[in-house]
Amino acid sequence: MNVVQCRMALAGLGWRPEELAREARVPIEALQRFDRGEVVPPGVYAALRDALHDAGVIFEDEGQMVEGGPGVRLRRALSDEGTRPEELSSANDD
Predict the structure, then answer these.
(1) Cβ atoms within 10 Å, residue 60
(2) How far apart are CA 76 and CA 74, in angstroms?
(3) Euclidean distance between the first and final Cα of the chain, in Å?
(4) pLDDT for residue 81
(5) Can you tell me the distance from the alpha carbon of 71 to that of 5, in angstroms, rounded to the nearest whole number?
(6) What whole-number distance in Å separates Cα of residue 24 and Cα of residue 51?
(7) Residue 65 DSSP symbol
(8) Is 92's pLDDT higher than 80?
(9) Percent of the chain, pLDDT > 70?
(10) How far apart, in Å, are the Cα atoms of 85 and each of 44, 51, 90, 92, 94?
(11) ∠ CA 14-15-21, rounded to 5°
(12) Which of 17, 32, 72, 87 lies deepest, with the highest CB count within 10 Å?
């Protein structure tokens, strides 16, 4: 995970940096240092990456899924999203 991937992951999840720091159980100052491109202890880096991964972020290396640089994507939701609009009918109207 690089800084840009971290920022993309936050945007995809709709999280503020404070939320990531809380979920990763690291001081916000450590996250801010990482965001500035400074070296952080390996444990901080791992905690940030793992928190994002646990929230559903998948990190992709350069060219892994499509041509281009490193990126992120979100896992599909595992929860029931309900009935899709095209599947609605009077038979399933609750």
Answers:
(1) 15
(2) 6
(3) 45
(4) 56
(5) 6
(6) 5
(7) S
(8) no
(9) 73
(10) 43, 33, 12, 11, 14
(11) 165
(12) 72
Boundaries of every domain in the chain: 3-74
pLDDT, tens digit, 9 for 90 and up, residues 2-21: 999 999 999 999 999 999 99
Strand partners, 60: 71
Say if residues 60 and 71 touch (Cβ distance below 8 Å).
Answer: yes
Q: How far apart are CA 47 and CA 77, in angstroms?
A: 22
**Is residue 36 left, alpha or beta, with left meaning phi > 0 and alpha meaning psi from -120 to 50?**
alpha
For residue 4, the number of C-alpha atoms closer than 13 Å in the C-beta half-sphere is 6
Query: How many CB atoms neighbour CB 20 within 10 A?
Result: 23
Residue predicted with more confidence, 81 or 87: 87
CATH node for 3-74? 1.10.260.40
pTM greater than 0.85 (yes/no): no
Q: Higher pLDDT residue, 62 or 78?
A: 62
- Is the separation of the CB atoms in 38 and 29 below 8 Å? no
Amino acid identity for residue 34 in this structure: F
